[in-house]
Design a protein that fits this description.
alpha+beta; Immunoglobulin-like; seven-stranded mixed sheet; five-stranded antiparallel sheet; PGM_Phosphatase
Length: about 600
């Protein structure tokens, strides 16, 4: 009698569990330094491979929150869409850690270890997708801290992660770091993936090379014969991770060929991959950088009313003088005027200090960031870094071909140059100096970093990408960074980090729909800061696009309106080449909460 499929499946699962248990027992009885047997072994490795256990935090449900109501309304509107702005429990659970083991009388809360999975060279992955899990194993084979994992990388034998994770424990020299490589989808959990290789290094060796990448040989057999690859890990000891505050200058890309095709209902153009910028998008990106430069110069001179400069004079002219007292853009209250001026000057100073620009690897965002950064002071002195993050790419829906990439690695920048040369007829001058003064780093944009044309991003995929992005921002050395990304990504990000507490009583608690526009429209501001474009230029550079209105500045949203701007960020799109300053607070466990958001440099919603 032929066995049933269910019987074969149960037999296979049982056999895999026996092999896993045998492997754990063998590792528990193996010396972490030289491979000899330990004299005293009274426990085996804990096999709870999922380090993200623990119930999601239950927030106080008392009272009525307009933000909660708004999130529920968005969820109902999206229906069964996999990329709904509703915050999934899986995303919150990523920050929950299991109970941590104390070692040698030192609490894990007093100090911790950061492990960065940099890259790998693998020989047995084929065309599958792989991810890495790491955990500290004590000298008696007891798992410590929590198990952390990276996101998936596919269709490459040399995947790159550069992902830093907090192991949540104070490791000693007698411990080891166990590194596992799995074949499968990381969003489905380790239990549904296949362990294809395992390696370990002693923490003494890792600490001796602290801050440097060390190779971890990978093996499929306990005898450590026949290495199947290597993973490079970087370990850093740190004190107890305290809460931190980061500022993100989030920029949406300029108008792309897809935006143009959507406006013109040109389905043939919409069906292409990885659309570059249009000429309008190029001009928008340049204009944003120049408006930022004007605002920063005003801030340094002490004549800035606020940071949301909506128009300006051409960059060849000197900065305009302060608006007259009768200007409608000035606050009638000296106190409010001083408050706006201080906020705007502080934002501009923070922007000028940015040394890193994280960018989606798609062509339109790479072009936007290069054009924007041409006016940044750190580009002039050669200190600006442009770092690709595949987690920052646009959210892909069904049929969203504009999110499908074409190039990888350094070829991403070459494609951006090529498409700009095809667009701007200046003999390739603009394309050749597109990234002048900027250190381009393709980072993890290798292999198939995009979602394939036949797939789409579900809520689990988006959760993982948001977690990766926020961890990259959290462990960045600088307090402020520039991020160039996409509209749907921004909406999904805000929905996951927006505070869920009750709204300040000073806000109007009426209908959200009736009050969304309250306090955001300026009757004196130009209807569209990008409505007039220069079409010719006497120089060989890309034509610059100044607004035609006089050099004035417009109001920004005061902090008491921040919940309204949070709601608009989740429901509306930022204009092309628009910028919003996000103040994000990370607590001790790494959970991110949005504290404030302000439109700056002439940006608006569309």
């Amino acid at each position: 009698m032929r066995p049933s499929w269910d019987g074969i499946r149960r037999s296979f699962i049982a056999q895999r569990e026996r092999v896993s248990d045998a492997l754990s027992d063998a590792l528990a009885t193996t010396s972490l330094g030289s491979g000899t047997r330990e004299n005293d072994v009274n426990g085996r490795i804990q096999t709870n491979l999922d380090g993200d256990v623990g119930e999601s935090e239950r927030r106080d449900g008392s009272g009525t929150s307009r933000t909660r109501q708004f999130l529920r309304r968005i969820a109902r509107r999206d229906g069964g869409n996999g990329t709904s702005t509703k915050v999934s429990e899986g995303f919150r659970a990523r920050y929950e850690s299991e109970s941590e083991t104390e070692s040698a009388g030192t609490s894990a809360a007093e100090r911790s270890v950061l492990a960065t999975c940099a890259r790998a060279e693998l020989t047995n992955v084929g065309s599958g997708r792989v991810f890495v899990a790491m955990r500290v194993i004590g000298e008696r084979g007891v798992a410590r801290g929590r198990r952390v994992r990276t996101s998936c990388r596919g269709k490459t034998k040399t995947p790159v992660w550069n992902a830093t994770r907090d192991l949540r424990c104070d490791a000693s020299d007698r411990d080891a770091l166990c590194v596992d490589v799995y074949l499968g989808q990381s969003v489905k959990g380790i239990e549904k993936a296949s362990l294809i290789a395992r390696g370990q290094i002693s923490m003494a060796f890792a600490f001796a090379n602290e801050g440097r990448e060390v190779p971890v040989p990978l093996h499929t057999k306990l005898e450590r014969a026949g290495a199947v690859g290597t993973v490079w890990i970087r370990v850093t000891r740190t004190g107890a991770l305290q809460g931190s505050r980061k500022r993100i200058f989030f920029v949406r890309h300029g108008e792309s060929k897809w935006n143009e095709a959507q406006r013109d209902i040109n389905f043939a153009s919409m069906m292409k991959f990885d659309h570059p910028l249009t000429l309008v998008g190029v001009q928008q990106s340049q204009a944003l950088g120049e408006r930022a430069a004007i605002a920063c110069s005003h801030g340094r001179a002490g004549i800035l009313v606020n940071a949301n400069v909506s128009s300006m004079s051409p960059p060849t002219l000197s900065p305009p003088s302060s608006p007259p007292p009768s200007s409608p853009f000035r606050s009638t209250s000296p106190v409010k005027e001083h408050q706006y001026s201080a906020q705007g000057a502080e934002l501009c100073a923070s922007y000028e200090e940015c040394l890193t620009c994280y960018v989606s690897p798609l062509t339109r965002t790479v072009q936007t960031s290069c054009l924007l950064l041409q006016s940044h002071p750190n580009t002039f002195i050669g200190k600006m870094r442009q770092v690709c993050l595949q987690s920052l790419r646009e959210i892909k829906g069904v049929g969203g071909l504009d999110t499908v990439g074409i190039e990888q690695g350094d070829a991403i920048l070459e494609r951006a140059r090529k498409k700009l040369a095809e667009l701007v007829n200046d003999g390739g001058h603009s394309a050749s100096r597109l990234s002048s003064g900027i250190a381009f780093d393709s980072n993890d944009a290798v292999g198939q970093w995009w979602t394939s044309e036949t797939d789409s991003d579900n809520s689990q995929d988006v959760d993982e990408r948001m977690f990766d992005f926020l961890e990259a921002i959290r462990f960045d050395e600088d307090e402020a960074v520039i991020v160039v990304g996409h509209s749907l990504f921004l909406q999904q990000l805000i929905s996951r980090i927006v505070p869920t507490g009750d709204v300040d009583e000073s806000l109007n608690t009426g209908s959200v729909a009736a009050n969304l526009l309250d306090g955001f429209s300026d009757p004196f501001a130009p209807k569209d800061p990008f409505e007039a474009f220069a079409t010719n230029s006497n120089s060989g550079d890309i034509p610059f696009v100044p607004a035609q209105a006089p050099p004035v500045v417009a109001t920004i949203e005061p902090s008491r309106r921040r919940m309204k701007i949070f709601e608009r960020l989740m429901s509306e799109k930022l204009c092309n080449a628009g910028c919003v300053a996000l103040d994000v607070n990370f607590d001790d466990s790494g959970r991110a909460t949005l504290e404030d958001a302000q439109l700056i440099f002439g940006s608006k919603f569309v």
